[in-house]
């Protein structure tokens, strides 16, 4: 059995709204062994909807449709389905009573127009919706030849209604899939996409089970693992094996799984050791601080931060910048920087970062330098550099960061580089 997902709404076809229902439904269907072969989006036009439904029924064993079940004139799913089935719309009294009761509970009189939501194509079944006024529709669409009918479920487009109805009402009606599909994600930072693929080697080969794909977002590499099997246990075993192989090959570049970001890992490591940090930011405008403060438990390890427009402004706020004597100044071997010409600038950055650490009474401080004016379309100039730094007790680290492309992406990448410096130090100091 394979499925098709149809999303109804002119707001989707015009781009005014993003279709997130189809993504969620695809993942849920795959989890129960029903792969999705087609995503279709259609405007609120009854003839177009009839054509789409007929095409989908001929090529797919299951259709899950979202949208078009409201009470307004452009909600045409029930009429389109009736056209495909060759039947009339008939009133379901129980559905009408339930809709009236929803309005009564809110001390409101039901508009007469809402009664259309209690009409269903003859031969179909209502799908209950305890969270809203739009019941779903369950039906079987006959196909040409001697093939079994295409199963059809229509659900509201409102996500919290649709998700509950799919899990509670639709899944129990579906025949079991003959294969289970499970997914997992491993997140990495510190190398580019091509380098990550080189490190992974044959793990990303096409046709491999589990399949491992690479995606990149703001310099974070996400490795997406997809395993197929006859049971959930079989899929989990394959995923566990893939995770172990990825960690062996990617090493310290791996920082988390699923929705974990670098800030989550840094907060967890600091709290586990009873340590703290502060931040001084120029180019990121406080982005690093904002990310940290969105993580639960940040109040136990984050002492505070300074966001300023320029290096001199940071210096004047901190007031007592010193040469930071006694610090071990480590220049990264892969920074691509002339250490002699840059040493004075690096020393000043280390001193400012040290002052930030002292100002807030923290164990560590992170620094993100200013972003020079930069036009990425001006190829006559070399891409400018900024600086990211980390200072702790007896150790410092400065990284020269080269601008690449969009300013917003650069800010995010710079914040991540700073967090990753602290993460790596915490990991290495543990061993």
Give a written overview of the molecule.
The protein has 431 residues and is an alpha/beta fold. The chain folds into three domains: 3-173, Molybdenum Cofactor Biosythetic Enzyme, Chain A (3-Layer(aba) Sandwich); 180-257, Alpha-Beta Plaits (2-Layer Sandwich); 262-430, CinA-like (Maf protein), CATH 3.90.950. It is 38% helix and 24% strand. It has 13 helices and 18 strands. It has helices at 10-13, 21-31, 46-59, 77-85, 93-105, 159-170, 193-200, 232-250, 262-273, 287-293, 311-318, 339-360, 407-430, and strands spanning 3-8, 36-42, 62-66, 89-91, 119-121, 125-127, 136-141, 150-155, 180-188, 211-217, 220-229, 254-257, 277-281, 302-307, 329-330, 364-368, 385-392, 395-402. The strands form four sheets. Strands 2-1-3-8-7-6 form a six-stranded mixed sheet, with helices on both faces. The protein has a six-stranded mixed sheet with strand order 14-13-16-17-18-15. A hairpin with a 2-residue loop joins strand 17 (385-392) and strand 18. Helix 3 packs across helix 4 (77-85) and helix 9 (262-273) packs parallel to helix 13 (407-430).
């Amino acid at each position: 059995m394979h499925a098709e997902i149809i999303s109804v709404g002119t707001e989707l076809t015009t781009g005014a709204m993003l279709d997130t229902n189809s993504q969620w439904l695809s993942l849920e269907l795959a989890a129960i062994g029903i792969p999705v072969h087609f995503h279709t989006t259609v405007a609120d036009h009854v003839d177009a909807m009839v054509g789409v439904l007929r095409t989908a029924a001929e090529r797919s064993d299951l259709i899950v449709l979202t949208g078009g079940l409201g009470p307004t004139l452009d909600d045409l799913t029930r009429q389109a389905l009736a056209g495909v089935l060759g039947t009339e719309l008939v009133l379901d009294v129980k559905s009408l009573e339930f809709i009236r009761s929803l309005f009564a509970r809110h001390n409101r009189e039901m508009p007469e127009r809402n009664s259309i939501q209690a009409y269903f194509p003859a031969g179909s079944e209502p799908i209950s919706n305890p969270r809203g006024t739009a019941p779903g529709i369950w039906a079987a669409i006959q196909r040409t030849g001697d093939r079994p009918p295409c199963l059809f479920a229509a659900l509201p487009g409102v996500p919290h209604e649709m998700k509950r109805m799919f899990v509670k009402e639709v899944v129990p009606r579906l025949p079991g899939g003959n294969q289970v599909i499970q997914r997992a994600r491993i997140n990495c930072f510190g190398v580019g996409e091509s380098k990550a693929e080189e490190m992974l080697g044959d793990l990303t080969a096409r046709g491999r089970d589990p399949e491992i794909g690479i995606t990149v977002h703001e310099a974070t590499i996400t490795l997406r693992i997809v395993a197929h099997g006859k049971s959930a246990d079989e899929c989990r075993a394959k995923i566990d094996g893939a995770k172990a192989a990825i960690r062996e090959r990617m090493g310290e570049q791996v920082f988390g799984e699923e929705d974990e970001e670098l800030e989550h890992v840094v907060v967890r490591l600091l709290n586990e050791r009873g340590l703290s940090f502060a931040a001084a930011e120029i180019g990121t405008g406080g982005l690093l601080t904002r990310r940290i403060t969105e993580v639960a438990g940040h109040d136990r390890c984050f002492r505070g931060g300074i966001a300023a427009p320029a290096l001199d402004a940071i210096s004047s706020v901190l007031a007592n910048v010193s040469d930071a004597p006694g610090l071990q100044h480590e220049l990264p071997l892969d920074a691509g920087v002339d250490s002699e010409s840059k040493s004075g600038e690096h020393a000043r950055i280390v001193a400012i970062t040290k002052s930030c650490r002292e100002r807030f009474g923290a164990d560590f401080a992170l620094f993100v330098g200013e972003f020079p004016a930069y036009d990425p379309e001006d190829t006559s100039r070399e891409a400018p550099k900024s600086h990211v730094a980390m200072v702790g007790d007896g150790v410092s680290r400065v990284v020269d960061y080269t601008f690449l492309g969009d300013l917003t992406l650069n800010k995010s990448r710079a914040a991540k580089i700073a967090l990753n410096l602290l993460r790596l130090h915490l990991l290495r100091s543990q061993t």
